[in-house]
Design brief:
alpha+beta; six-stranded antiparallel beta sheet; 3 helices; globular
Length: 202
């Protein structure tokens, strides 16, 4: 009789442990699914600019990608990579005059997108400032309403040092601040240097 009770207790305990274990694992599974969905969106945007990307979307400490996809407004993406003794960057913009959003192709069959852009190099001091600001953004918690989206809203993502953070118009303060920092630090200055070659002084 005692043996039957012992086995019964073991079965009940195993059942309860299994349910608790499933509950503990469920948030992790849901989080991974959410991250996968976010990364899928990022892959589409990076492919729009014909940028190569890591399949697992893990960027090391020598690579930074930040994008802001705005419907019916200017969308932008910046990539900075540290290669040996050189730190190179590239910046892209999609203007709303040509595309309402990043997958609003001028020609669907060829996935034709018109965008402006330029390449540049940055010094180690500037690169450190950028990565320091990126760490501040990555350390912030993602908002509770991150899954709510607006038709004419913005979508953001930052990848750096094996970490990523995604957001949208519901929690855009840190992303907007980082975007303004990049533009104030060097992007706008480089854009002002763009002149037709016939207008350059000899």
């Amino acid at each position: 009789m005692q043996i039957h009770r012992f086995f019964a207790l073991v079965i009940v305990a195993s059942f309860l442990f299994g349910r608790c274990n499933n509950r503990e694992n469920r948030p992790t599974i849901e989080t991974r699914a959410a991250m996968s969905a976010n990364d899928s969106v990022s892959k589409i945007i990076m492919q729009t600019f014909t940028l190569p990307y890591f399949e697992n979307m893990k960027f090391d400490s020598g690579s930074l990608v930040f994008y802001c996809s705005r419907a019916y407004d200017t969308s932008s993406l910046i990539e900075i990579k540290e290669q040996k003794n050189l730190i190179r960057g590239v910046y892209y913009e999609i203007l709303p005059e040509y595309h309402r959003f990043v997958t609003d192709y001028a020609d669907t069959s060829s996935k034709l997108i018109f965008f402006n852009g330029y390449s540049f190099t940055v010094d180690p001091g500037t690169w450190k400032s950028v990565t320091d600001q990126a760490k501040v953004v990555l350390e912030e918690k993602e908002g509770l309403n991150k899954n709510l989206k607006y038709t004419d809203g913005a979508t953001y993502a930052l990848y750096y040092d094996g970490q990523s953070r995604h957001g949208n118009s519901n929690d855009e303060a840190s992303f907007v601040k980082f975007d303004r920092f990049l533009k104030g630090q060097f992007l706008e200055r480089y854009k002002q240097l763009r002149k037709p070659i016939m207008h350059k002084s000899k």
